[in-house]
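[recover] target loaded
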């Protein structure tokens, strides 16, 4: 049985679109995009949950093993969100574009 690698993106701006593309190419399924600009929960035409970060805790409970990626371009803002969420390091995904040459 193949388990889906589920990912929650924090942020839904231009940088998040690039991260989403990398995640999908890397075999992740995007479960949700959470951005505090969203005032209510809805589901996109692609089946992705859209809402604000207040949904994060429940999504992590409902979808065991889901990982998080803070898809914000600004280092300062990304660090502020990381500190605000106060989640263990293992809650976060590492994404590397499959076309990268290391």
């Amino acid at each position: 049985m193949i388990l889906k690698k589920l990912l929650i993106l924090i942020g839904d701006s231009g940088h998040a679109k690039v991260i989403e593309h990398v995640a999908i190419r890397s075999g992740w399924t995007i479960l949700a995009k959470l951005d505090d600009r969203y005032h209510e929960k809805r589901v996109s035409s692609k089946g992705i949950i859209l809402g604000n970060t207040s949904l994060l805790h429940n999504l992590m409970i409902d979808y065991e093993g889901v990982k998080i990626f803070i898809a914000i371009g600004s280092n300062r803002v990304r660090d502020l969100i990381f500190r605000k969420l106060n989640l263990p390091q293992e809650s976060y995904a590492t994404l590397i574009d499959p076309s990268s040459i290391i």
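[recover] notes: Strands lie at 5-10, 28-34, 42-43, 49-51, 67-70.
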